[in-house]
Amino acid sequence: MTSENADSVHDASDRDEEIRQLRATLRKMSHEIAELSLRNEELEKELRRANRVVAGAWEQLDVMRHSSSWQLTAPVRAVKARLRGVLR
Predict the structure, then answer these.
(1) pLDDT tens digits, residue range 32-87?
(2) Taking the chain, what is the end-to-end CA distance rounded to the nearest angstrom?
(3) What is the CA radius of gyration of the chain?
(4) Where are the beta strands (DSSP E) in 4-87?
(5) What pLDDT shows up at residue 10?
(6) If we measure between CA atoms, which residue out of 76, 52, 51, 74 comes closest to residue 64?
(7) What's the CA gap between 74 and 2, in Å, rounded?
(8) For the chain, which end, N or C, has fewer CB atoms within 10 Å of the first or last residue's CB respectively?
């Protein structure tokens, strides 16, 4: 075997090893992407659920603030707030 042939075989072997490593890395990264995609979907669902809860809370607060009892007790809350400010 000539020196050129030995170098060629060695270069081919190095390329094959690099390709094998790159393919292994690609499989690993593809798996990680799939896992992260699933986690992202879970987090998006959780965020939508939390947004619905917050929207419901704001709606309840709005209903309460527009209720007649809230409006009737507004002066009492105002006096209480002023007293709290004076006592501090």
Answers:
(1) 999 999 999 999 999 999 999 999 999 999 999 999 999 999 999 999 999 888 87
(2) 95
(3) 34
(4) none
(5) 76
(6) 74
(7) 99
(8) C
